[in-house]
């Protein structure tokens, strides 16, 4: 079994909160992980079982009497009626680690947690495998531009093999599982169960086309009207559907950095897929090589690097804010990390010959009054080395390989 970095955080939450809530996309290993960590004496039920779901919805008090705490409830979003009764129970008994709740519909879970369990629940978000987890290194640290480290070199070919493969645990656990069969089934189940329970989308065919159009635009600035034109629905519908992708954890919208001192800045977010294997499948790429040689390869590399940072930060509970900057003249900085009132600018380039001129857009940060930390160009060069007094050539592995 692959060890997950978030395991340590789960144990911390269990020791300090009465309720643990674990959210994340479908099939990223939430249930498998929690089942492996269940303390002795804890009951476990899944609301995928329709009879249990009906009891939980129609008689939540009886459900919780039948399955007393400590209790792990999987797919708990199917029975929001449980939350007020869980609240009453943990208000009477303040023992830590009484309930573990998990589900793949983050919006519904968070809505109910906010309404009923605020201050009582510790909330974690889990994603598909990171590079660290694939390489079997659960002990890792946050990517820190102030503390860059040389790691084993990943050339461009291996990097795109990783991007194309993605991080869905099932593809690593089941030998011989066909990638296309897995993703076809994944999308079908996702639409029929997750999407349908959140939103009446009308046409499944249109929603699949929408998912493909979003995948094609990975790494790009979000334009609702452009996607709407291709899918043949309204911009309002695209905005609503994108909120579903975001709330179920498939897509992360990288917000634009905002400051009154920045003029003519585009406020639109950039589209980041949290699992690049799923993204590549949706966009129709047949092999890692085809993707690597395509015009889209730069955007895929950007999204992969950013998603790895996001996933690792979430696993470790890091308080780091991520942004991008793009002005009306299309000058941009791919990634801006904000930590301790310091901004760290990062360019991500599919190149093995980084040049100093690639840093020119960092001048957009001049005059902000903010402290500017170390930055640089993340690329497929093989060595970590300085470009000037505060910017570095940063190999891909020095970002995604944070194993201790």
How would you describe what is shown here?
The chain is α/β, with parallel strands linked by helices and 404 residues long. The chain folds into two domains: 7-125, P-loop containing nucleotide triphosphate hydrolases (Rossmann fold, 3-Layer(aba) Sandwich); 131-400, no CATH class. It has 17 helices and 14 strands. The protein has helices at residues 7-16, 30-37, 50-58, 60-66, 82-92, 106-116, 131-134, 156-165, 169-173, 179-198, 204-216, 224-231, 235-247, 276-283, 288-292, 297-316, 397-400, and strands at residues 19-23, 43-46, 71-74, 99-103, 121-125, 251-254, 270-273, 321-326, 332-339, 342-348, 371-372, 375-379, 385-386, 391-395. Strand 3, helix 5 (82-92) and strand 4 form a beta-alpha-beta unit. Helix 11 (204-216) packs across helix 12. The protein is globular.
What are the defining features of this structure?
single chain; 404 residues; alpha/beta; Rossmann fold; 2 domains; seven-stranded mixed sheet; five-stranded parallel sheet; 41% helix; globular
Q: What's the arrangement of secondary structure elements?
A:
Elements: H1 7-16, E1 19-23, H2 30-37, E2 43-46, H3 50-58, H4 60-66, E3 71-74, H5 82-92, E4 99-103, H6 106-116, E5 121-125, H7 131-134, H8 156-165, H9 169-173, H10 179-198, H11 204-216, H12 224-231, H13 235-247, E6 251-254, E7 270-273, H14 276-283, H15 288-292, H16 297-316, E8 321-326, E9 332-339, E10 342-348, E11 371-372, E12 375-379, E13 385-386, E14 391-395, H17 397-400
Parallel strand pairs: 1-4, 1-5, 2-3, 3-4, 10-11, 10-12, 12-14
Antiparallel strand pairs: 6-7, 8-9, 9-10, 13-14
Helix pairs in contact: 3-4, 8-14, 11-12, 11-14, 12-13
């Amino acid at each position: 079994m692959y060890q997950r970095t978030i395991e340590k955080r789960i144990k911390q939450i269990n020791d300090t909160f009465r309720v643990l809530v674990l959210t994340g996309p479908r099939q990223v290993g939430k249930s498998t992980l929690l089942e492996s960590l269940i303390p002795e004496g804890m009951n476990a039920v899944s609301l995928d079982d329709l009879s249990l779901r009906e009891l939980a919805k129609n008689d939540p008090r009886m459900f919780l009497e039948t399955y007393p705490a400590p209790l792990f409830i999987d797919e708990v979003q199917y029975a929001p009626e449980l939350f007020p009764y869980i609240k009453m129970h943990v208000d009477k008994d303040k023992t830590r680690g009484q309930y573990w709740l998990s589900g793949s519909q983050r919006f519904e879970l968070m809505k109910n947690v906010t309404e009923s369990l605020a201050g009582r629940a510790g909330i974690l978000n889990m994603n598909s495998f990171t590079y660290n987890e694939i390489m079997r290194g659960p002990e890792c640290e946050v990517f820190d531009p102030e503390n860059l480290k040389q790691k084993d070199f990943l050339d461009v070919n291996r990097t795109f093999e990783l991007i194309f493969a993605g991080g869905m645990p099932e593809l690593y656990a089941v030998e011989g599982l066909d990638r296309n069969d897995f993703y076809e089934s994944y999308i079908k189940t996702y639409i029929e169960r997750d999407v349908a329970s959140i939103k009446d989308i009308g046409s499944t065919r249109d929603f699949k086309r929408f998912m493909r159009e979003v995948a094609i635009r990975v790494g790009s600035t979000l334009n609702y009207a452009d996607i709407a034109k291709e899918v043949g629905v309204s911009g309002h519908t695209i905005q609503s559907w994108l909120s579903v992708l975001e709330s179920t954890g498939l897509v992360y919208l990288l917000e634009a950095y905002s400051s009154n001192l920045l003029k003519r800045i585009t406020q639109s977010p950039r589209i980041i897929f949290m699992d690049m294997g799923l993204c590549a499948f949706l966009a129709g790429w047949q092999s890692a090589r085809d993707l690597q040689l395509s015009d889209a390869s730069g955007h895929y590399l950007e999204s992969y690097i950013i998603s790895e940072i996001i996933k690792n930060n979430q696993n470790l509970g890091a308080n780091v804010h991520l942004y991008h900057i793009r002005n009306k003249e299309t000058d941009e900085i791919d990634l801006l990390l904000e930590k301790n009132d310091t901004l760290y600018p990062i360019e991500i380039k599919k190149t093995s010959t980084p040049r100093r001129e690639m840093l020119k857009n960092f001048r957009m940060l001049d005059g902000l009054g903010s402290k500017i930390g170390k930055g640089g160009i993340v690329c497929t060069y093989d060595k970590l080395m300085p470009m000037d007094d505060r910017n570095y050539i940063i190999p891909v592995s020095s970002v995604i390989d944070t194993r201790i």
